[in-house]
Amino acid sequence: MRTMLIASTLLLAAMPAFAQEEDVDCANATTQADMNICANEDYGAADTELNVVYKQTVTAMRAKDEELADMSADYVGAEEALKKAQRAWIGYRDGQCELAGFAARGGSLEPMLVSVCLAELTRARTEELKVLLEPSEN
Which residue among 2, 13, 62, 120 has its CA within the 20 to 30 Å range from the CA of 51? Predict the structure, then answer.
């Protein structure tokens, strides 16, 4: 299973190179290859946004830890909890999206299914992180 995940990851990593070779109009993609490229580009955009929001969230959790440290050293740990949650989420996302690809295992549709799953879960995680950036009502 690990080998398949690595192979899928390599395939997805190579997709941007394909996109650069071809100028695909994602608004009018008609071939499966074009749809695969566009789905991967969509995931790339979602991942870029996630990385920006994650960095902001790390900074916010670090500030929260500094605030809480004034009350008690026992209260500190928001930044580490965020990092632990993010590592766990990445494992979940990768496994769930590998599973989503099994609906078309070995077919030309599989990369698109995986990319769509990755984009959807990444956008959902981004929204979860944004909630952590909102001021608390306390």
Answer: 2
Distance between CA atoms of residues 118 and 42, nearest Å: 9
pLDDT score of 14: 54
Residues in the chain: 138
Residue 105: CATH number of its domain: 1.20.1270.180
**With helix as H, strand as E and coil as C, how does the chain read?**
CHHHHHHHHHHHHHHHHHHHHCCCCHHHCCCHHHHHHHHHHHHHHHHHHHHHHHHHHHHHHHHHHHHHHCCCHHHCCHHHHHHHHHHHHHHHHHHHHHHHHHHHCCCCCHHHHHHHHHHHHHHHHHHHHHHHHCCCCC
Taking the CB of residue 14, how many other CB atoms lie within 10 A of it? 12
Is 56 among the domain residues? yes
d(CA 2, CA 85): 21
**What's the pLDDT tens digit per position in 96-137?**
999 999 999 999 999 999 999 999 999 999 999 999 998 765
- Rounded to two decimals, what is the model's pTM? 0.80
